[in-house]
Queue: 3 jobs
Job 1
Amino acid sequence: MSSYRVWAQAYTIPTDFPEADGTATWTSTAIVIVHAQAAGRCGMGYTYADASVAALVGSTLTEVVAGRDAMDPPSAWHAMQVAVRNLGRDGLAATAISAVDIALWDLKAVLLDQPLALLLGRYNQAFPIYGSGGFTSYDDGQIARQLADWMETEGCCWVKMKIGSDPDRDPARVAAAKRAIGSAALFVDANGAYSRKQAQHLAEVFAGEPVSSDDLHGPRHVRDHAPAPMEITAGEYGYTLDYFRHMLEAGAVDVQQADATRCGGVTGFLQVAALCEAYHTDLSAHCAPALHRHLGCAAPRFRHLEWFHDHVRMSTCCSTARRFLVMA
């Protein structure tokens, strides 16, 4: 089959309102889009990362993958892992590899004229989504309107809101959100802002809502002390397979989370899915809904997909991302 050429571009897209979570504030979202072209066809991948990732793709990864068989993305993935050894495989290098790998898999699907989900093989024909937003910069009314709309008109089975900027206010904010969605389950995400004791205390206050954290030891502590109905999830900032292995070995989560735009693209996400199968732990996809709707079909223990507000907006307003909007 044809070899390919690869290039990357970075974009900054403003949010519709100022946004914040437990540890950060922002008014725009950066996306790096990678194109892979062969035999007159083009595939696309992306990652939500700094614009410098586009330069890393151009300076380091394009040369590594050039000339490889377009039908063999894992070969390019392995070569990229070797190429960033001295840079460090976590962080920006991992996001760059992820975007290129996604583009190469998409190109293969385009060349074979198959949806990515069908190319990978489908364990699942469908799975539920949860609407994700409810930023700490929103007032209670704005949160209530957003979450209720997702439940009533967008087909979401659950919704998630951000907490942690002002822990003393969080119980009232959560109560307002629960009133807006009735009996539906509410997920809450502090983005690692709470200490273990704070998370344990507020878990009891929220009683039945899951808490997410990036700390490998914190989630296990909260999991051991949280009310029985509560499930703990973490993993959105996992970049390498060892990270997920350590989290699963520690029994830190009830549901493992992973993000293909960070953890090595399609190839890396499927490796995480295999780990979850081995540890009998369900897997949830973080953000990038247009991509993960395909990968969720290919993961045997897939629980649900985060329909993240910013990324849904970006997928629908960026013409370069529209190919991914075809149903898996």
Job 2
Amino acid sequence: MSRGLLDGPSVDGLESEAPKLTAAFSARATVARAVPTVSDPPDAKASPVVARRQIVAVGGGKGGIGKSLSTSSLGICLARRGRRVVLVDADLGGANLHTALGPNPPKLSLGDFINRRVSSIEEVIMETGVPNLGLISGAHDYLTASNLKYFQKTRLLNRIRNINADYIFLDIGAGISFNIVDFFLLAEAGLLVVVPEPSSVENAYRFLKMSFYRHLWSSARGNGIRAVIEQAMDEKNQQGIRTPFDLLDAVERKDEAAGQYLKQRARTFRPRLIINQTRYPEDERLGPSMASVCRKHLGIDIDCLASVQYEDVVWQAQRRKKPFMLVFPDSKVGQSLEQAAVKLLSSSQR
């Protein structure tokens, strides 16, 4: 069988490779979050024109790694460039995106939409004080929101997809539940935030693997093929499926046409990494290392959007309850973050 883009060896599981990458990173306590750093300053007059609505999901395998700060900061950058941006706090179990923007919890939230206390999702979009930037706060008042029923999730995803904006950012929760993964897969652009700590790296691999399998499951035609994918989601399955390569082989043995189709769909899963809170030279190498391992053992072609440095100015802004990009817009980190936003603008044209 020809593997094409998905070429890779048979391995005993991605988790066997993760310790090799995490060995160089000792667990370090962190007291602040940083934002993406790149080298060249942006040219605000040369912004590409957005051709269509773009949904960007910001996720990660665990909490406390800077998802909300990255989401809010990138959203502010794009809004300041004249794009209409709506930030959605899709962390249904622990909504806190509003704290990264400064305002107190709004009166209306996703809980009101989920519970049908409002008729449209647009009614829960609040102003942030930043022109062109709106916020949909998470369901902080709805205790069962993290366990949405299927029809509730479908309705919510459909309404989010149709929000009138140039960019819709989803700040999703931690973990690998189907609800969380489905929010990640809703987006055309998926950003995975990782910090250089063993637990974060390993959880990121699990998140990528589960998201990849879920992506294939959603693309599969027929219950028989879906059943094979569901078996693969159990790492101890009796079919000997341990890697995505094993899964695609199993599907092709069952149905050659279905196997070829899933290979094509596999190529459309291309998340990007944000390596957050870097402090040492070896931290800077984590992004390329993870990208290499994912291509080799998952068949996922990913790249690193930005490396992220630890900066005191970030937590200083948080203590003042002000968005970092508004308090320190001319800082080195602020200029770097603008360039990361330019990358998103450029990628939306492809």
Job 3
Amino acid sequence: MFGKSIAQSIKMKVKDLFGFIGTNNQKDSERCENLTSIPGIGAKNCNNFYDAGYKTPESIIAASDKELLSIPGVGMSFIKKLRNTLGRI
């Protein structure tokens, strides 16, 4: 799990430097359109979720807290906000 997190972090840093890894010829806005509908996920961090394999809001909602914590930039405050928001739906 720790190695996966490091690999994701390195991949994102390389992507930031070169701007082409993992884009699959999609604009970031297209990749993130659905994900940004979740409170706490904005245009800036949606690529972290997408690159970690969470490409739909449903996949994020179904993920365990432990799985979400392995995504760079995700902390307990995001998870609490996500779970609290879902509790009101």
